[in-house]
Amino acid sequence: MVSQTSLFLDDWITAQQAAELIGVTPNQVRHLARTEIIEARKFGHVWMINRDEAKAYAASDRRPGPKPGNKHTP
After folding, report:
1. 39 belongs to a structural domain
2. Residues 39-71: pLDDT tens digits?
3. What does the pLDDT read at residue 73?
4. In a domain, 28, yes or no
């Protein structure tokens, strides 16, 4: 029998795990969490990141600057 707690915990990963998944540093993940760019919860001093949010962020186009197809005029 699987408890509801273990199901809940399967949805969350540490900032370190999220950093490896996304390809950034743990500090950058914590910044994304603090600025509510990705869903996260803080338990004491430990940030836990929603696994699906981290995957979606990793799949998004995060490069700075104008996007292809956008006309940028100075």
Report:
1. yes
2. 999 999 999 999 999 999 999 987 776 766 656
3. 55
4. yes
Task: Report the number of distinct structural domains present in the chain.
Answer: 1
Residue 74 maps to a domain: no
Q: What is the pLDDT of residue 61?
A: 81
**Nearest partner of 18 among 33, 6, 34, judged by Cα:** 33
Q: Each residue of 22-55: b (16+ CB within 10 Å) or e? A: bebeeeebbebbeeeebbbeeeeeebbbbbebbe
Helix, strand, coil shares of the chain, percent, nearest 5, are 45, 15, 40
Half-sphere exposure of 42 (CA within 13 A, CB side): 10
Q: Is residue 73 part of a domain?
A: no
What CATH number does the domain containing 14 carry?
A: 1.10.10
pLDDT confidence of residue 69: 65
Domain that holds residue 52: 4-59
